[in-house]
Specification:
The protein is built from 24 helices and 32 strands. By secondary structure, it is an alpha/beta fold.
Length: 717
């Protein structure tokens, strides 16, 4: 037998830890090669055994061999392949893929795939196979190609049959109208499995990252996404710019048709989207709320309102017509947040309404629902309406590197960034300095005001939404200011309500709470509040996914603090900073709350104290008010201006026709922060005046097609 014996410790030598080549199973030629090889196997902890086999064919991804005896299913295998032509041998760990009866009686043919192959061996093997192919006569090569085509089995299909990882849905990058499979993958496990079997799930993800193929991978992992590099990011920018040059002149009525089609496709894909939200860890109740916001944002009534604002013309004066047009900025790059990437990223679709082209970068850890949305809904709507290729591009990779490229690239115009306030404001400064338009959606510290004549039942229901997803959402109320006369009654009803909130797996339709990412910060805020006089009313403990007390559990009980408003209330972190965990201060506001209002009547002092606490909030996303008296409602509307959206006697987290869902002041949106219409933010306003050169009493108008026409002869200009 040619070649060297496999040493007894060879399986251990091939275990992960060294430099292991991740094999590209899509581009691998197979050659016939008849020679003796040695197969090593081990069962459990038994000693390794070696026996001879006859090599039948060889590729860079695996081998087929002929044996005189069948093999057991639970063996661990390795193989040594002598290659005297290049003066070496290949040693690799292998996994059984298929079995068939050989043409020779009493012989068995097995197919094996390489699960671990050293990088140097992989390169040698590729070189050997390529040299072997070049040595074949041209007519033989032609016949090989014809046989492969005639069989109807592409190499990619064959490899998918042999590699269980191919059975997972694979979401590629999408650049210039093409799916780009980078060969580098991130695997995504079911959130339920990560809670019920955390160690097993972590082990499977670790093995997948090393190039192994766990037998039960489909039970734990629901998808894999391709991971790109800096070149892919730059290619996407170039593709978007090329598309923008054409798309900026795309007829306006077609752009509105794209919005209508997005709405219809959202409805068509409802269940798939919600299922992906659940797989990513969002409780069903949270996922359904997110979906309702996505749908309401693209409602026909709202889109009709946008139509009236993007292009307007006014009555002619002295044969001159004036127009206001919103013109596209160019290439818009979007970086949505990790906690709700898909439902937030859909707002970037309105950049297309303005005539921009888009590059979307979902978060690396949870990109699946976002890629699904942009590939199957937004890009499909573009395709249905004949938009230029490259109008929508999807890249996944290192967020910091991609953002830096966006900030410095001369062909990027706007950057939509969702994230933490401190980081976002720093990035916004860099964007502005580099001539980019920063569109910031940052942290929120929403406040709810509850007056003495409020609908207490309605206010309790609305405030309980603060614990949706364990308060890990920007636009939920994170502090309540309550009139002293109803405080005790409100607190009792509210605590009774939240005691019934369910902890459970995301797939449980009754689950409201999510695992908490910032448990250490939660306890730091809680300790700070108690040291400064706050009283713990309910909660404060960790739970398992079953709702049982667990000192290392990933969940937290909804936690409520009683805080009496005074001149030092701003010193409490739970009042001053964003609490991105289930910790809610209920602030009792009395006539003596703030000493500066001591000269006022009790009612007026409470009113002014509430207004001051809202005005002093460093964030400015949403504020909601529960109040009965019309006169006070008018005052609240007139005097509250520190938020993007003010909701009165409405569910705090709900969505309304015509009004944008996002945007705020202060640390929520930066110095240019306000209610964000993304079709408006990604465009710039241009005034136009037109006067007929003929001096006739005629005017130019904007047609439904978004083109300038003369009203007298309807000819395009």
């Amino acid at each position: 037998m040619n070649g060297l014996k496999i040493q007894s410790n060879s399986l251990a030598a091939l275990s992960p830890g060294g430099q292991v080549q991740r094999v590209d199973r899509r581009r691998s030629h197979r050659i016939k090669l008849h020679r003796e090889v040695e197969l090593l196997f081990r069962k459990g902890t038994e000693h390794e055994q070696v026996f001879a086999a006859r090599l039948h064919s060889l590729s860079a991804t695996g081998v087929s061999v002929i044996l005189d005896t069948p093999l057991a299913d639970d063996f661990i295998f390795a193989i040594t392949i002598p290659l005297p032509e290049v003066g070496t041998k290949i040693v690799a760990r292998i996994k059984k893929s298929w079995l068939s009866q050989a043409s020779t009686e009493a012989a068995w043919m097995y197919g094996f795939i390489f699960t671990h192959l050293r990088a140097t061996d992989y390169r040698l093997l590729k070189t050997f196979i390529n040299d072997h192919l070049e040595a074949l006569p041209a007519d033989e090569l032609r016949r090989k190609r014809e046989r492969r085509l005639a069989s109807g089995r592409t190499e990619r299909e064959n490899e998918r049959r042999s590699d269980r990882r191919w059975q997972l849905p694979t979401l590629c990058l999408y650049i210039h109208g093409r799916d780009v499979d980078t060969g580098e993958y991130e695997y995504h496990a079911h959130a339920d499995k990560m809670l019920t079997h955390p160690k097993e799930t972590a082990d499977i993800l670790k093995r997948l990252s090393r190039g192994e193929i766990p037998a039960n991978v489909e039970d734990y992992v629901y998808a894999r996404t391709c991971v790109g590099n800096d070149d892919h990011n730059r290619q996407a920018i170039e593709a978007a710019h090329e598309a923008y040059v054409k798309f900026k002149n795309f007829p306006l009525f077609k752009r509105f048709k794209i919005m209508d089609d997005i709405r219809e496709l959202i409805l068509r894909h409802k269940q798939d989207l919600i299922n992906l939200f659940i797989a990513e860890g969002h409780p069903r109740k949270l996922g359904e709320w997110e979906f309702s916001g996505m749908l309401k944002t693209y409602a026909a009534e709202s889109v009709s309102f946008y139509r009236s604002e993007i292009a307007r013309n006014f009555d002619a004066q002295n044969n001159e017509i004036a127009m206001l047009l919103r013109k596209p900025d160019g290439v818009v790059c979007v970086s949505p947040p990790r906690n709700a990437a898909c439902s937030n990223s859909i707002l970037g679709g309105f950049a297309l309404l303005g005539g921009n082209a888009v590059v979307i970068k979902p978060p690396l850890s949870l990109p699946v629902s976002t890629v699904y949305l942009w590939r199957n809904i937004i890009d499909e709507a573009l395709r249905l309406n004949g938009a230029p290729i490259g109008s929508c591009n999807i890249v996944i990779g290192n967020t910091a590197k991609y953002l830096n490229e966006w900030i410095t690239h001369p062909k990027v115009n706007d950057i939509i960034y969702f994230g933490d306030s401190d980081r976002g404001l720093q990035l916004g400064t860099k964007m502005f300095a580099m001539g980019k338009k920063p569109i910031l959606e940052l942290s929120g510290k929403d406040i709810m005001l509850i007056w003495e004549d409020a609908d207490i039942e309605g206010a309790v229901e609305s405030l309980a939404d603060c614990f949706l997803g364990s308060t890990q959402i920007c636009m939920v109320p994170k502090m309540a200011l309550i009139h002293e006369s109803i405080y005790d009654r409100f607190q009792e009803k509210f605590v009774d309500k939240i005691k019934r909130l369910k902890v459970g797996l995301p797939s449980d339709p009754e689950t409201c709470l999510s695992p908490v990412n910032k448990i250490a910060s939660f306890y730091a805020f809680l300790e700070d509040a108690q040291k400064k006089g706050a009283q713990l009313i309910y909660g404060g403990s960790r739970l398992s996914y079953r709702g049982e007390p667990d000192t290392s559990g990933p969940y937290l009980t909804p936690t409520v603090l009683r805080v009496d408003a005074d001149d030092k209330i701003g010193e409490l972190r739970c009042v001053r900073e964003e609490n991105f965990f289930p910790l809610l201060p209920l602030v009792r506001v009395s006539g003596k709350a703030l000493s500066r209002h001591g000269h006022l009547s009790k009612k007026e002092a409470i009113f002014q104290s509430m207004l001051d606490l809202v005005a002093e909030n460093a964030y400015g996303l949403r504020v909601s008010v529960w109040c009965g008296a019309d006169s006070l409602i008018r005052r609240f509307i007139r005097e509250i201006n520190n938020c993007g959206l003010l909701r009165i006697n409405c569910r705090h987290v709900d969505f309304s026709l015509y009004l944008a869902t996002h945007g705020g002041r202060g640390k929520t949106g930066g110095p240019f922060g306000e209610l964000n219409y993304f079709w408006q933010k990604t465009t710039h306003l241009q005034g136009v005046t037109v006067k007929s050169s003929s001096g006739e009493d005629t005017a130019f108008r904007l047609s439904e097609e978004g083109l300038l026409r003369r009203t007298d002869d309807n000819k395009e200009i």
